[in-house]
């Protein structure tokens, strides 16, 4: 049974619209993943610079705004932890019973 030309045209337009939406969503997802990958690469580069393994000579200045975002995100994760450690350290220093030296570790087995 053949569909009337009007119904067939409508069905083709719906299929085309559906396909366009799928393509648009796939492109948006690809752009999000590319941005995430770029940020991860910049984060790795940042840590390599901190470790002295990489140099800013290798840094592309066009990435400066994104690197700024990566640094700010990293600091926003680190600062609360540092603050908590600072507060815990103040409480630790105030209690003389907790001022013992750290426990010693046993020998390290380098063969494993």
From TrEMBL:
Record's keyword terms, sorted: Coiled coil
Coiled coil spans: 16-43
Chain intervals for the UniProt region annotation (Disordered): 89-112
Keyword Coiled coil: yes
Domain of life, source organism: Eukaryota
Name of this protein: Uncharacterized protein
């Amino acid at each position: 049974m053949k569909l009337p030309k009007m119904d067939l045209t409508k069905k083709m337009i719906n299929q085309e619209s559906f396909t366009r939406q799928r393509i648009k969503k796939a492109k948006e997802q690809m752009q999000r993943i590319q941005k995430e990958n770029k940020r991860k690469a910049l984060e790795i580069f940042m840590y390599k610079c901190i470790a002295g393994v990489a140099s800013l000579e290798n840094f592309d200045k066009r990435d400066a705004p994104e690197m700024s975002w990566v640094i700010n995100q990293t600091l926003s994760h680190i600062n609360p932890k540092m603050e908590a450690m600072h507060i815990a350290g103040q409480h630790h220093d105030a209690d003389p019973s907790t001022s013992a030296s750290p426990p010693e570790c046993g020998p390290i087995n380098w063969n494993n």
